[in-house]
UniProtKB/TrEMBL annotation:
<dbReference type="InterPro" id="IPR000914">
    <property type="entry name" value="SBP_5_dom"/>
</dbReference>
<comment type="similarity">
    <text>Belongs to the bacterial solute-binding protein 5 family.</text>
</comment>
<dbReference type="Pfam" id="PF00496">
    <property type="entry name" value="SBP_bac_5"/>
</dbReference>
<feature type="domain" description="Solute-binding protein family 5">
    <location>
        <begin position="75"/>
        <end position="431"/>
    </location>
</feature>
<keyword id="KW-0732">Signal</keyword>
<keyword id="KW-0813">Transport</keyword>
<dbReference type="InterPro" id="IPR039424">
    <property type="entry name" value="SBP_5"/>
</dbReference>
<feature type="signal peptide">
    <location>
        <begin position="1"/>
        <end position="22"/>
    </location>
</feature>
<dbReference type="InterPro" id="IPR030678">
    <property type="entry name" value="Peptide/Ni-bd"/>
</dbReference>
<protein>
    <submittedName>
        <fullName>Peptide ABC transporter substrate-binding protein</fullName>
    </submittedName>
</protein>
């Protein structure tokens, strides 16, 4: 594991890449030629229909969505071949002909309506995401969707994995989810708890058939162990690698290493409520001005990541930007802290004799998260702001966050995942959002986001989201830290793999083994 150590006498960081102390692993029997074995950080949980885990159905392509995203995050046909906005609140989606589910039943507008209604009923997040008032099958292959308000973001939201289309056989008579039955190129075959999930090729798939017969997703949560499994020929492909492993495998001709910026952001969410000193916007702005994101990427991540001085990744032209990104400015930070009543005493910021101390929470399951969190704390400490860092499971951290018992929670989200800004801005930062645990609300931001989601592409939409991003920047309820660079590796005989910028799509149907 790469350990991030605080530098007490300088403003630099030292990282230690600690390799395995065991002997080199013994070579296991090679994987079968028609099977791709994938070592994953997350357990697939194909029998659980929860927001994060349900992404597996899209990652693995058990399910199709009505609309898909290409490798530039443009919307392209999926189960819907085309779509049209009939009125500000009504859309028509024309469905693909001759599509069948894995159980042999036919896909039509009635089946899609049933699936989306089940998803909305079982997952409240989906209701907010889709904003649907009602649906009707106006023809066998035409689905009409009426939204609660003008909602231009609907096609993009229908690319989200949570909107994958399920056959009725996916649910029991009580309407409860039992297993994923979709229309994708792979069908669910087997699940072994805390071990692996297996999918097999669906020869009735409407598109180009996969080259391989089977994909096996093995749950290997330890980051070192995934790489060791690849080196031992126990798996063909791994993702979410440690930075030290990326450098080492890149030098080994027996492996291919993949690296690409994707739709992912590590950021600190500030507690803007009364329990935190970050309720003062000046403190939030000062923290943003003190933290050197370039140093976090270089020192904590061995350069694997992009410094985040703004919320959306710079590689996405459609993503809205503030007029000016955050920047490193210690002079500005000093002025802001002084205005807020703080003074430096022996290099430490204090007010009324009490040090400014921030409680930083995060979770350790993501590869880069501990290093990024410690880097943030080290930079604040070096600039006179004391920190108390505590690492939890995701669920443990979230429980404290919901109660407001934190100052900064370091999290990872994929704000560009659907190719539209509405997904994250509405669901995370709007004052009425179910996932807004920051006790932050801004009427101007709400108005800009509520307006932007109604508008088709053009100058008016761009202006609405520009206003939203300027408020997000000026009121600073967050500190962007690192735009994610996805890294993975495979055996040298794996062909055709490409990293998809959404971060939630493997496209293994295009992969073969020579």
């Amino acid at each position: 594991m790469t350990i991030f150590r605080k530098a007490l006498c300088t403003f630099a960081f030292a990282t230690l890449a600690i390799g395995t102390i065991a002997a080199a692993p013994q070579k296991a029997a090679a994987t079968e030629q028609d099977t791709l074995v994938v070592g994953t950080m997350w357990e697939a949980l194909p029998l659980a229909m929860q927001p994060r885990r349900s992404r597996f159905f899209n990652e693995s392509e058990i399910l199709d969505t009505l609309v898909k995203l290409d490798y530039d995050l443009n919307t392209v046909p999926g189960l819907a071949t085309s779509w049209e906005r009939i009125s500000p609140t009504v859309w028509h989606f024309n469905l693909r002909e001759n599509v069948v589910f894995h159980d042999g039943t036919k896909l039509d507008a009635g089946a899609v309506k049933f699936s989306l209604e089940r998803v909305i009923a079982l997952l409240p997040y989906a209701a907010d995401l889709l904003n649907i008032k009602q649906m009707s099958a106006t023809a066998p292959l035409v689905l009409e969707i009426e939204t609660n308000e003008p909602f231009a973001a609907l096609p993009n939201q229908l690319t989200d994995a949570i909107t994958g289309i399920y056959a009725k056989a996916s649910f029991n008579d009580a309407g409860e989810f039992v297993k994923p039955v979709g229309t994708g190129p792979w069908k669910f075959e087997e699940y072994r708890k805390q071990d692996r999930t297996i999918v097999t090729r669906f020869d009735g798939y409407w598109g180009e058939k996969p080259a391989l017969s089977k994909v096996e997703y093995r749950f290997i949560p330890d980051h070192n162990s995934r790489t060791l499994a690849l080196e031992a020929d126990e798996v063909d492909f791994i993702d979410n690698m440690l930075p030290s492993d990326v450098a080492r495998l890149s030098r080994d001709e027996n492996f291919k290493v993949y690296s690409k910026p994707i739709a992912g952001l590590y950021y600190g969410a500030f507690n803007a409520g009364d329990k935190s000193p970050l309720s003062d916007v000046r403190i939030r702005q000062a923290v943003n001005a003190l933290v050197d994101r370039d140093l976090i990427v270089k020192g904590a991540l061995d350069g694997i990541g992009e410094p985040a001085w703004e919320f959306f990744g710079p590689q996405f032209d459609w993503a809205p930007k503030a007029d000016a990104p955050f920047k490193l400015d210690t002079g500005l930070a000093t002025s802001l802290l002084n205005d807020a009543g703080y003074q430096q005493n022996d290099g430490k910021w204090e007010k009324d004799g009490k040090p400014l101390t921030l409680r930083i929470l995060s979770y350790s399951s993501r590869t880069e998260m501990p290093a990024i969190t410690e880097a943030l704390a080290a930079l604040l400490n070096q600039n006179g702001i004391a920190t108390d860092v505590q690492m939890y499971t995701w669920e443990g951290m979230l429980d404290l966050v919901k109660r407001g018992e934190y100052d900064i929670s370091v999290v990872f989200w994929t704000p560009e995942m659907t190719g539209h800004p509405d997904l994250h801005l509405k669901s995370q930062f709007h004052s009425k959002a179910g996932l807004n645990y920051q006790f932050w609300n801004n009427a101007g931001f709400d108005e800009a986001v509520d307006t932007g989601r109604t508008l088709s592409p053009g100058a008016e939409k761009d202006e609405a989201y520009r206003r939203a991003m300027n408020i997000l920047h000026d009121d600073a309820p967050i500190i962007p830290l690192v735009h994610k660079v996805s890294v993975g590796a495979s055996a040298k005989n794996v062909e055709g793999y490409r990293i998809h910028p959404s971060g939630f799509f493997y496209d293994f149907k295009s992969v073969s083994k020579d």
